[in-house]
Structures are given as C-alpha cells and as structure tokens.
Fold:
Amino acid sequence: MSNDKDDKQAADDALQLGLVQTQQAMAATGQRAIVVLEGRDAAGKDGTIKTLTEHLSVRNTRVVALPKPSDRERGQWYWQRYVSHFPAAGEIVIFNRSWYNRAGVEVVNGFSTPAEQAQFLADVPGFERMLVESGITLIKFWLDIDKDEQDRRLRARREDPLKALKISPLDAVAQDKWDAYTAARDAMLAGSHTPDAPWTCVRADHKKQARRAIIRHLLRQIGPDKVAQEVKKPDPDILFTFEPAAIGDGRLAR
Amino acid sequence: MSNDKDDKQAADDALQLGLVQTQQAMAATGQRAIVVLEGRDAAGKDGTIKTLTEHLSVRNTRVVALPKPSDRERGQWYWQRYVSHFPAAGEIVIFNRSWYNRAGVEVVNGFSTPAEQAQFLADVPGFERMLVESGITLIKFWLDIDKDEQDRRLRARREDPLKALKISPLDAVAQDKWDAYTAARDAMLAGSHTPDAPWTCVRADHKKQARRAIIRHLLRQIGPDKVAQEVKKPDPDILFTFEPAAIGDGRLAR
Amino acid sequence: MSNDKDDKQAADDALQLGLVQTQQAMAATGQRAIVVLEGRDAAGKDGTIKTLTEHLSVRNTRVVALPKPSDRERGQWYWQRYVSHFPAAGEIVIFNRSWYNRAGVEVVNGFSTPAEQAQFLADVPGFERMLVESGITLIKFWLDIDKDEQDRRLRARREDPLKALKISPLDAVAQDKWDAYTAARDAMLAGSHTPDAPWTCVRADHKKQARRAIIRHLLRQIGPDKVAQEVKKPDPDILFTFEPAAIGDGRLAR
Amino acid sequence: MSNDKDDKQAADDALQLGLVQTQQAMAATGQRAIVVLEGRDAAGKDGTIKTLTEHLSVRNTRVVALPKPSDRERGQWYWQRYVSHFPAAGEIVIFNRSWYNRAGVEVVNGFSTPAEQAQFLADVPGFERMLVESGITLIKFWLDIDKDEQDRRLRARREDPLKALKISPLDAVAQDKWDAYTAARDAMLAGSHTPDAPWTCVRADHKKQARRAIIRHLLRQIGPDKVAQEVKKPDPDILFTFEPAAIGDGRLAR
Structure:
C-alpha cells in the first residue's frame, strides 16, 4: 500500500474512532440523535449509512428505511409511522429517506396533493423544533449530485446485476424529471431550513470525500468535546450549511 | 316511569342516536377524531366515556388510558407513546387523560422537571395545530368539579368496594393539593387554548347534565350537518369555551 | 323496586365486587389473563364485555376488537397482530372476537383458504398451550344462541337506529348460513378444546343469566382463593365445559 | 491483484448475485424468510450480517438486534417482542441473536429461572413449526468458534478502539464460562433441532469461509430454482446440519 493510501486509511480510522467514541458518550449520557439522509436517487444514501454504521453498536443504532405505507397507515396522521421509530435513550436512529418524502418524491410524482405538500412544509419547522427542544439531536443531510453523475450511477446500476435491488420504478424518470426534482429540492430546503434544524448540504459526486465530510460534521455536532474539537472542519466545497443563496449560485446541482 | 323520566330517556336516546349517525358518517368519509378528556380525580372521565361509547362501534372506536410509561418509554420523545394510538381513517380515539398529564399531575407532584413542563406548554399549540391541519378533528374537554364535590366522590369511592380500582395513590392528595391543581389547571388551560384546539370546559358536578352537554357539543362539532343543526346548544352554565377571563370569574372551581 | 329485584341487584353487586377483587389481586401479583369471547353475530359479546368491565380499572384492562387487517398485516404471520395486544404484568385483555376468526367467519365466508383454516386448527392447541405454560391465564367463552333468538336480535338491530353500528354486511347471511356456521363452530370447538385451553360454552339466549354465569366462571378460575371459593358454580344448563358429546346432544344450538 | 484473488472475488460476486436474485424472487412471490444467527460472543454474527446484506434491498430487509427488554416487556409473553418484528410479504428479517437468548446467555448467567429456560426449550419446536407451516422460511445458523479463537478475538476487540462498542460486560466471562456456554449450546441445539426448523452449524473460525458457506446454504434453501441448483454444496467441514452425534464428536468446539 502506498503511503498515500496508508494516510487515508489512518484518517478514516480516526473518523470511525470518533463515531465510536461519540456513541459511547451518548450511551453514557442517554443522549439521542436522529440523522436524516435525503437526496436524489443514487446520491449515495445507502453507502453513506454503511460507512456510518461500520463500527457502531447494532443494539443502539437503528437504520430506518420504511416500505411504502400500508392502506391503514395511509389513513393515519402523516408523521405517525415515522414517530414510532424515534430513538430511546442513548440511541442513534438514521432515516434513509424520511418524512421529507412528502416534499420530494411525492411532489414530483404526484403521490400526494399539493395541499398536503404545502401543509407538510408549513408543519415541518414546528415539528422539528419540538424534537430538538425535547433534547433530541436532529441532523439533516442533503446529498447532492449533479445530473451527469446521477446518469452514470443509474446506468451503472442497470448494468450491474449486483445492484438490481437498488433499481426502483422511479429511477427511470429521475433524469427526465431532473428539473422538477431540482425545484422540489429547492422548495424543500428553503422551506425547512431553520435555526433549530438546519440542512447540511453535501456535494456527493465523490463518494469517499462526501462520507468523510459527513462524519466530520457529525463528530463536530454530536461528538463529546474532546472528539468534536479535534476534528477538522469539513471542506466547505464539499459540505456546507444550506442558505437561500445556495439556490442558484451553483453550489447545488441544477 | 314518570313522564318526566320518559322525556329524559327520549332526549338521551336522541343524543345517542346522534353519536351513532356521526360515526356512520365518519366511517363513510374516513373522517378521524381525537377526543381528549381531562379533569381532576373523580371529575367523571370514566363514566363520560362509558356514556359516549354506549352505542358506538367497538371496531372504529378506541379508548386509550395509558399505564405509566415503561423505562424505555421514559427515554423516548414525550409524544411518541400517544402518537402511536392516533386514529386511522374513520376512527374515533378517546383519550382518558392524555399528553396533558405533563401539565397537570406531573406539575403538582413533581413527576417531571419544571423545564419539561414549560417545554410542554410551549410545544402543545404547534403540535395540536399540526393534528388539526392534517384533518383530524381534535376536541378537548376539561371536566370541572368543585372541591366539595370531589371530596364527596373520593369519600364515596373509598367507601364503595366496587370502586376500589378507581382509587389511586394520588387520590389522597387531591384535596390537600387542591390549590396546586387549580393553579396547574389554570396555567394549562390558558397555555393550550388556541383557535385550532380550544378547550371546552364542562361543569361536571352534575354527572348526567355534564354528559348530555358533552354529547351535544360533540354532535355540533363533528356530526353530519343534519345532526349538528338539530342539536340544541349546550347550556352555557354547564359547558362553555374556555376563555382567559374564566380564570377567576367563578366559572371554574377554585 | 321489588324484593326480588333487590336480591338480584345484590347478587350482581357481589359478582362485580368479585371481579374488582380479582383485578386487585392480579395487579398485586402481576398475574395476566386473556379472555376470548366468541360467538355468532348477536350472541351478546359486546354487552358481556360492558358488564365485565363495569368496575374494572381502565388502565389494567384492555378490550381488543381489531378492525380488518391492513394489506401489510395480511402478508404477516397470522398471529402477529393478535400477539401485539397480549397483556403485560397485571393486565386483563379481553378479545372481542379473536384469532378464532379463522375458524369461524373466514370458513363460512371463504375469507381464507381451506388449507389456512386447517393449518389454524392444527396450530391453535400448541399456540395456546405456550400461552398457558408461560403463566398467562387463558379463558375462552363460546356464547351460544339459538336460531330464533339470533333472528329476533338481528331484526331488533335493524329496527333500532341506536344499534345501527352493530350491523355488519355479514348479518344478512347469518341466518341463511346458519348451518354452515354451526358446522364451523362444531369443528372449531372440537379442534381447539384442550386440557390447557378448554372452551366454556354459555347459553346466551337470556343475556343477564349468561353474563352472571360468565362472571361466576371467571371468578372461580382467576379469582383469589377467598373469592373463588365463595362463588357458586354457574348453572350447568347455562354454562358448561365443552365436550365432544355436546355436538349433537342439544346443548349447543343447531 | 493475483489471479487467485480475482477468482475469489468472482466467486463472492456470484454468491452475492444469488442473494440479489433470491430477494428479487421473494419480492415477486411474497415469500418471507427469517434468518436466525446465534453463536458465542465474537463468533462473527455482525460481520456475517454485513456480508449478507451487502447488496440487499434496504426496504425489504430488516436486521433485528433487540436491546434488553423494558420493564414492561419483561412482564409480557416472552415471544411478544420478537413476533412484532416478523416479516411481511416479500421481506427477509435477520435476527442478530433471537429468542434463543433464553437458552444461551440467560442460562449461563442466570438471567431467567431454570423453569423458564426449560419451558422455552419445550415451547420452541412447536412455535417454530407454526412459523414454518405458515409459509415463513426459517433458517437457523449456529456460528461455532473454538476457545482459542474466541480468546484471540476478544483480546483483539479489547485492544482495538474501533471495536469498543462490541465489548459487552459479558465478554469478560465468555472464556471463564466457556464450558457452561458449551453445555448450554449443546442442550439448546439438541432441544430445538427439528425437522421443521433444523440448526445449521457453521465452523466460523475462518470468517470468509464461514460467510461463503452461509450464503451457499441460504441460496440452496431459499433461492429460486435456477439459483439453488447452481450453487455448490457448502464444504461439510465448514457447514453441516446439526445432529445429536455432533455433540462430542469434535465437530462442535468444546
């Protein structure tokens, strides 16, 4: 292995160690965290979660990737099926897609009414503020990729039989409806970025860079002091707090 | 049976019929309702619920009287265990005590911290607005009794072996801490009475009157038009919408 | 009120008191009970439950009347949605209809396959033995009415608008398919009557008698010693342990 | 990369592809599977699960690693909290430790009574037969390692800060109580190995070999015909169906 590779491995190990120490501290204090991972199809959510959970405790970490709602659930309060997976003391829950479905895939594909979608954006800041004020740490990542990269990944997915289970009927329209997804993303980020629950945007075209940046951000946010202070700030070209100006200034893929 | 008794029975039957027709309409449209019943010990919550559910469908009506939280639940988001009982399409859920525990019994007896209690009152208007805006009908009743009546009922409870299961360790302090409960009630009503989710106060010293008034109110709120329009307004001395002035003007027991 | 009425009221009160004392004892020891109520349409299950729960604790008693399964539930293990309602320490759970749907209404109306129904009857003895050996008290009542009485009740139901919510689409065929229901009942009772979990049959044509007999049986089965010993044995013409000979000997309605 | 490495990678890819095709077939037919992974501390359960789920669908696959029961759960039916995670149509659920806790860790460490443990072993064959006869595929793996290998892994765990979250208080006694765990394992395997739900034993001292053998076994058991038929039988020195003679003949570590 080259020295360069050695160095990268050492850096990755240090980040993983930070996650381990963070979870140890959380288990000791009872701190709870919800991590939301959103992004277009093929943005790298699954892989990011595998990296995040590499060394975490299987008993204190839960990854939630909900199937489509049952007929009964469709008649319930929209938030109900998400709330039932929220963390108990000391737990980290990672949502692989989340309540933000209503502001993304549902908007673009008409799976709910415009009124429901508008209601969602009206509700989300208050809902998330409640979570945060109850002491739950809520960290929301938007994984952003550009159109060509998504195209490459979706093609690779279709050509690689090992990735067959990642293919969804919606993949087919991800490129065709690219602009609609962009508009939905912009409205979602603008409407749900709040002081209590800000969005962290991640340029995810380069997977490893993105994952390192995400871990760095997590450690700085929820790590115990000695961990948080030693982690260097993620590269601002890779990971940055959303701000309205980011819409249209080229930092988010169009 | 005297004519007077006949008349009363006929009136009660008409009210019960209204509830039946309301639930039929809800089942047809998928409308959902949450009814919250709060009040001091012995205010008549259990009996009211028996009257309300007398002729309702056992499959579309659920009465929720949660036991004390488990150790795991105590580490979860406060609202989580309530949310898991919310109604599906066409259902009525009646909470026999509810999330308002945090603003009542917990305040008076120190079962949670003042910070948690303050947070609760800060959160509840937004939370309930979300419910209401999602299309759930939320109706909150405060059953109010005066101090002597509570004393009589708690004594009767202690003397009647059939009521032994209604006795809780907190009964013993209900009279001693009367003023603390009054203060908690006032703060709770004032802090959680909103245009979206107003409190309806019910003078419950006379049980039958109170129950009739409650049904009338429900029918006018959630009954189909033809039911709602025919029900006479509850006597305002028995049932009235909370308003801040009610604190101290003698309408709520002190 | 006549002396006779006074006597009956006193007897009913004594039975209710027995239930109260039973639940007090269960709460103290952590004992758990499941009560299953089965019977044809209009056999009196709802009313029996109201009588049983008249004075029981709303927090330690749960009545479970499940709505039809969701699409997701239909793909799950048949027993799963029932198991999720089983009692915690000190609780009584009353099933208003139960897993026995598969041996009754589903058989007669073809809601499941004959193979599934046969599997159910093969499984149920082992399943219930597990429950019983885990320390849960399981008491199963079959409320039996004769054909004319069902006819009267279903007619009364159709004519009484207060009972509108009790009407189900299946009522219409209850009389026409009387014999098929009889056959299903016989196969169910014969196939699931075991030493661990016997069926108790109740002649329910006379509602009050039936309810008193049911309470007596419960008290003798799950009451604390001093309660159980004082309760007289239910009239064997009203309540009797199922035995195969009961099929065809006239004790069960044909 | 050497040719040998290339070959191994190709073989691994073929196995992973088999898993993908298996899940595709299951999603199409609605087939359900429960995979139980048991074994001593450090036997390789977590790593095996990561390999199994490498390319599976996050929405149709659930990994269940339950935390210790809550106080409320401890009062419930033992099986209840496991049943609530059983698969819906088309799902694979992998239990990382399971109901078999009662026959292993609880026996050795006295976390339940001998009567409860005996009851468990009496119940488990019937319970699992019910699952299997309902159409759920149940596959149970015992990952077996020898004492020296466990010692090495537990030491490595203690020395590698990245593995800190894998350390449990019970690790400390795993070696000291080796023989008690052996006896518990033998009793568990002998008592719960049935025609419906046999145990598959895996020599897991060599991790990669073990994982390949496990995948091969799964594919032959639950793969669609064309997958199952092409997979070679796992090496019988690595993976073999339990039989009573295996206790004491040297195939299972002592």
Chain C has a mean pLDDT of 95. The longest helix of chain C spans residues 3-29.
